[in-house]
């Protein structure tokens, strides 16, 4: 993973960590349930966006290299593994 993307992803994770701390604070403060759910939804979307960025990087680097080097079965296997993981989230 290139340094620029890695730094961008680390920044996203720090934001997500802050959002999770915010959720903890909301619970401690007995915040309105709908507000907590709204914040939790924002965290899920942020994590999903993080996963998408990592997946895009993987497909455009590792999987492309596997295909170029003739490792088609390995490339397909990895794509299917990620696809299966994404189906479990639904």
UniProtKB/TrEMBL annotation:
UniProt name for this protein: Transcriptional regulator
Listed InterPro entries: Metal_Tscrpt_repr, Metal_Tscrpt_repr_sf
GO-annotated molecular function: DNA binding; metal ion binding
CDD domains reported for this sequence: CsoR-like_DUF156
UniProt-listed GO biological process terms: negative regulation of DNA-templated transcription
Organism of provenance: Candidatus Magasanikbacteria bacterium RIFOXYC2_FULL_42_28
Residue spans crossing the bilayer: none
């Amino acid at each position: 993973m290139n340094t620029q993307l890695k730094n961008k992803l680390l920044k996203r994770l720090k934001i997500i960590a802050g959002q999770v701390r915010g959720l903890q604070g909301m619970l401690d403060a007995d915040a309105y349930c709908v507000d907590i759910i709204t914040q939790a939804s924002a965290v899920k979307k942020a994590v999903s966006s993080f996963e998408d960025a990592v997946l895009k990087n993987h497909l455009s680097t590792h999987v492309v290299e596997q295909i170029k080097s003739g490792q088609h079965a390995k490339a397909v296997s990895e794509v299917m593994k990620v696809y299966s993981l994404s189906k479990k989230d639904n």
